[in-house]
Amino acid sequence: SFCNASDVLGADLLDCSYSMPDRQLVRRVASQVEFHLSDENLAKDAFLLKHVQKNKMGFVSIKLLTSLKKVEYLTHDWWLTLYALQFSELLEVNEEGTKVRRWVPIPEPLLSIPPSKLLLAWELLPLEQDMLLLLQKNFIKTITRMFSPFGTIASIRILRPGRKLPSDVRKYTSDFPELLSKHCALVEYKSLGSASALRSLEDLGRQSCPRVIVNVSSPICIS
Q1: How far is CA 95 from CA 56, 61, 98, 108, 205, in A?
Q2: Cα angle 190-192-194, degrees, rounded to a multiple of 5
């Protein structure tokens, strides 16, 4: 039973009604969680990266990790996940047995990636070209070419002054009055390609044209 593993988990964390889990299953669960918290996966997984960034010590809820699709395929039981994580050489469980983190700290470039993949841009071209371009049918293609090198784009919305803003965008106007007065592009990424892609995007924002804000929902202003 799990009671035989009391030296690993502590008797207060164990329910003696459990039977000892299959060793292969334990290894698979631990390996899957290790993958979820790897540099490779966190660079692509905005949802999980956001939860890692929330905790100053880098801990993530074991219940949350158990609910992830690939872990849930192996087990719905977060106690089994907790048990499996005790045998990982890459991960550390907190004293309460509720959260886990990596022994090796997450690289700073990964931690600096904004949890939101929403980008706001205006002054997309020099003023004399701006209005002409907005009248062209290939404007969306131009925006796509401009921002697709930095990651996989989920959607692009063109916002024009004088037009009613979508309800989900209105909440940003107090922080970004440009939404009311300038032609803007609101670009949402499925994922940013890498930390280096983010730095390239920041470099683009430091140019006089276009003006770019990354992570609209938690503003990082680049100007």
Answers
A1: 16, 13, 8, 25, 44
A2: 150
Which of 32, 39, 47, 45 lies closest to 85 in space, CA to CA?
Answer: 32
141, HSE (Cβ side, Cα atoms, 13 Å): 5
Alpha-carbon distance of 25 to 30, in angstroms, equals 9
Partnered with residue 192 across adjacent β-strands are 151
| Closest by Cα among 94, 140, 148 to 119 | 148
21-34 tens-digit pLDDT: 789 999 999 999 99
Distance CA(59)–CA(53), nearest Å, equals 9
Q: Rounded mean pLDDT of the chain?
A: 76
What's 41's DSSP letter?
A: H
